[in-house]
Amino acid sequence: MHIHILGICGTFMGGLAVLAKAAGHKVTGCDANVYPPMSTQLQEQGIELIHGYDAGQTDINPDLYIIGNVVSRGNPLMEAILNRGLPYMSGPEWIGQHILQNKWVLAVAGTHGKTTTSAMLAWLLEDAGYAPGFLIGGVPFNFGISARLGGNAGPSSFFVIEADEYDTAFFDKRSKFVHYHARTAILNNLEFDHADIFPDIGAIETQFHHFVRTVPGNGQLIVNAREPALARVLEKGYWSEKVWFGGPMPDGWTFEERDALTFDVLFNGEIQGTVSWELTGEHNRLNALAAIAAARHVGIVPEVAIASLSRFKNVRRRMELRGEAHGIRVYDDFAHHPTAITTTVAGLRKKVGPSSDQARIIAVLEPRSNTMKLGAMKEALPESLKEADLVFGYGALSGKDALDWDLGEALLPLAEKAAAYHDLEKMVESIVKAVRPGDHILVMSNGGFGNVHQKILDRIHSKAVSP
């Protein structure tokens, strides 16, 4: 089958393209922004890419068009497809029908931690010899790719998928995850997000309950006990075994911290082993509990899973060290929701120690998610950044990433330790003037952020930095 993918350079659709090609389909695609690294990865797979959405692409005459949720009415190629009555479906629906059929699907849902937890879980299965397939919204260092079919076929095969609550397509406003028919479902957390499509948290809870309704009776729900919103979801009904994690002992999966990078794992109050790794933050310990619980559901004993976690290397853009110059470290992280910002900063603080002249955290933030651009979370920003020693915020004045609110005003509660910029180069200049050896620069954005990480590193390399 020849499929042509609209919006192919998105993380999900790019992964779908890789899976489709591996499954033997001819794959082509188009996007408004065809650029590395996704364009390079796809071209290396032999996938032809077209820049833009001109209606003439119908002359390619594929068997099926797969539509990404970046596409809306008015898109010239989509209008041509509709006018000519050509066959199309959404990416999640195609994945559900053509990749996940007859597989044991392990789906990871939640406002935060989906990518990291999915990567952990895929690695636990891989390290135990299960050869899982996976589709993850990032690139796990243990695999070097974001998607693969897996080594087995048929009902004995396993597939780990990041289960997003964002809507499926302009013609299907259900969340993506209802198409996956998970047998093992992690409900990692639930907060208000995606203000561009959800009016309130109740609307998101409804979608999560639709997801719960798709899990079979012989399946398992692995649920974060700390989340009131998830408790409300389950109050609406569930039909599968439920396992808690993160709650007060001795119920379900819990942890006891030994130090910043080591913790004991307990199940129903009994110790199962000790994780020692390089990941920071309580959020990653909770992610680990969820992954261990899900691995147990498919037959991996906790001791084996815990040992595997010591070899887990995290995911690109999750506290990724981008470089070091003059004793100054620059990290890249995907955090963009205030809760994720809080846990990311707190995790780094625990790793580097209390604030001091030798252990300063310099937070560099671009609030560019749809929710942040609309201002739904702006009041929470100062509190989320309170453990940083200095804060540099960037907000574009125009274009698709422009904010609908004043970033400088929002950061006022942080007083003199925070500043907002509309000019990226001026912000980089200010950062480089402020840093000194021993600083940890934490860059947080869900976009490319103008490659600010490398700009900072290059400028620090080229100047003498005073202690």
Automatic annotation (TrEMBL):
Pathway(s) this gene product operates in, as recorded in its UniProt entry: Cell wall biogenesis; peptidoglycan recycling
Superkingdom assignment: Bacteria
Broad class of enzyme this protein falls into: ligase
Domain Mur ligase central residues, every copy: 108-295
Catalytic reaction equation(s): UDP-N-acetyl-alpha-D-muramate + L-alanyl-gamma-D-glutamyl-meso-2,6-diaminopimelate + ATP = UDP-N-acetyl-alpha-D-muramoyl-L-alanyl-gamma-D-glutamyl-meso-2,6-diaminopimelate + ADP + phosphate + H(+)
Alphabetical GO biological process terms: cell division; cell wall organization; peptidoglycan biosynthetic process; peptidoglycan turnover; regulation of cell shape
E.C. number(s) listed in UniProt: 6.3.2.45
Keywords carried by this UniProt record: ATP-binding, Cell cycle, Cell division, Cell shape, Cell wall biogenesis/degradation, Ligase, Magnesium, Nucleotide-binding, Peptidoglycan synthesis
Mur ligase C-terminal domain residues: 317-447
Family annotation (InterPro entries): Mpl, Mur-like_cat_sf, Mur_ligase_C, Mur_ligase_C_dom_sf, Mur_ligase_cen, Mur_ligase_N, MurCDEF_pg_biosynth
Gene3D superfamilies for this protein: Mur ligase, C-terminal domain (3.90.190.20), Mur-like, catalytic domain (3.40.1190.10), NAD(P)-binding Rossmann-like Domain (3.40.50.720)
Domain Mur ligase N-terminal catalytic: 2-100
Residues at which ATP binds: G110, T111, H112, G113, K114, T115, T116
Signal peptide stretch: none
Presence of the UniProt keyword Cell division in the record: yes
Gene Ontology MF: a single term: UDP-N-acetylmuramate-L-alanyl-gamma-D-glutamyl-meso-2,6-diaminoheptanedioate ligase activity
Required cofactor names: Mg(2+)
Function: Reutilizes the intact tripeptide L-alanyl-gamma-D-glutamyl-meso-diaminopimelate by linking it to UDP-N-acetylmuramate.
NCBIfam families membership: mpl
Membership in a protein family: Belongs to the MurCDEF family. Mpl subfamily.
Name this polypeptide is given: UDP-N-acetylmuramate--L-alanyl-gamma-D-glutamyl-meso-2,6-diaminoheptandioate ligase
